[in-house]
Amino acid sequence: MLEGKAMVEDSDMPVKMQVQAMAFASQALDLFDVIDCKSIAGHIKKEFDERYGSGWQCVVGSNFGCFFTHSKGTFVYFQLETLKFLIFKGASTP
């Protein structure tokens, strides 16, 4: 599992949820090849949707850029092994 390898780079997510995100990422790395970023991201998204409700987005890779709006308290960006993980819930518009 994690064994202290994950490093949070930015987040406004509660710590308990961050730990869960890193656990799901570690689990995904056990299930899929490290080059299969799409399957890794899909696994994490599915787990977050099931646990915290639908609307979660997940980006996994070693080199990507993005610009997004998220709901307060639902964003985490961390590194685990050689990959970066961006998980957030999209902001709803009024």
Q: Your description of this structure?
A:
Belongs to the dynein light chain family. GO terms for molecular function: dynein intermediate chain binding. Its main location: cytoplasm. The chain has a single domain (7-90), classed as Protein Inhibitor Of Neuronal Nitric Oxide Synthase (2-Layer Sandwich). It is 35% helix and 24% strand. It has helices spanning 15-31, 37-52; strands spanning 7-11, 56-61, 76-80, 83-89. The protein is globular and about 35 Å long. The protein starts with 6 loop residues before the first strand and ends in a 5-residue tail after the last strand.
Tags for this entry?
four-stranded antiparallel beta sheet; Protein Inhibitor Of Neuronal Nitric Oxide Synthase; alpha+beta; microtubule; 94 residues; 2 helices
Give the structure's gist in a few sentences:
Helices cover about 35% and strands about 25% of the residues.
List the helices and strands and how they pair.
Elements: E1 7-11, H1 15-31, H2 37-52, E2 56-61, E3 76-80, E4 83-89
Antiparallel strand pairs: 1-3, 2-4, 3-4
Family: Belongs to the dynein light chain family.
InterPro entries: DLC_sf (IPR037177), Dynein_light_chain_typ-1/2 (IPR001372)
Protein name: Dynein light chain
Main pleated sheet: 4 strands, antiparallel
Spatial shape:
globular
Per the CATH scheme, the topology name is: Protein Inhibitor Of Neuronal Nitric Oxide Synthase
Helix count from the secondary structure assignment = 2
Mean pLDDT: 90
Query: What is the name of the CATH architecture?
Result: 2-Layer Sandwich
What is the end-to-end distance?
A: 40 Å
Question: Secondary-structure element sequence?
Answer: EHHEEE
Report helical residue fraction. Answer: 25-40%
CATH domain class: Alpha Beta
Query: Can you say what the CATH homologous superfamily is?
Result: Protein Inhibitor Of Neuronal Nitric Oxide Synthase
Give the low-confidence spans. none
